[in-house]
Amino acid sequence: MIRAVIFDMDGTLIDSQPIWYRVSTEFFQRNHFPVTMDEMIILTGSPVGKLVDYVLQRYGQREKNASQLTAELMEYAVSEILVAKPLMPNVKEVLVNLKQQGIKIAVASASPRNMLQGIVDSCGIAEYFDYLASAEELDYNKPHPAVYLHAAKQLGVAVNECFAVEDSVLGMISGKAANMKTVVIPAKAEWDDPRWSLADYKLATIAELPSLLG
């Protein structure tokens, strides 16, 4: 029996991946790193710190250190996302449905808490969430299961009673490693990736999620 649904944020609840691709490419190029958008796309699902580490390892150190670059990129990306408010279609309807079924709802994200809180507030969906878990506050980020385990603990729900809902392979691995039932909602361009076979369920849209609980 499923008692809780724990969502990833970027790419799952909000259509932020195109914003991340654009913003990260612009940011690194502005700081004299010749990255391409294709490189940023390949790193989908990675925390900001890992993006910065990748760029520094590939292109070498510039004027700013890793912590400066990470903080500045995060601030830039969050500001762009909060302006766009790119909520995925049907998200609010799904959250309402889950609440009506008595399901607890949380977020388990690699993003910092101020971004998570800002997004749910600006998109008008904060009232549906029982907890917002940020891996930035924990010892490990995705694909480690820590953020999902932390979210389940805060909800007071056993891991085998949780759905982990993800759009990235790294996130799926995180949910599976937490011993949760994993639901993936891939982007259309990634639909045929054979790695999705690791998931318990594969959906075309978030609107299909409540049917798994009926």
From TrEMBL:
The keyword Magnesium applies. GO terms for molecular function: hydrolase activity; magnesium ion binding. InterPro entries: Beta-PGM-like, HAD-like_sf, HAD-SF_hydro_IA, HAD_2, HAD_sf, PGP-like_dom2. Its cofactor is Mg(2+). Pfam families: HAD_2 (PF13419). Keywords: Carbohydrate metabolism, Hydrolase, Magnesium, Metal-binding. Belongs to the HAD-like hydrolase superfamily. CbbY/CbbZ/Gph/YieH family. This is Hexitol phosphatase HxpB. It comes from Actinobacillus indolicus. The gene is hxpB.
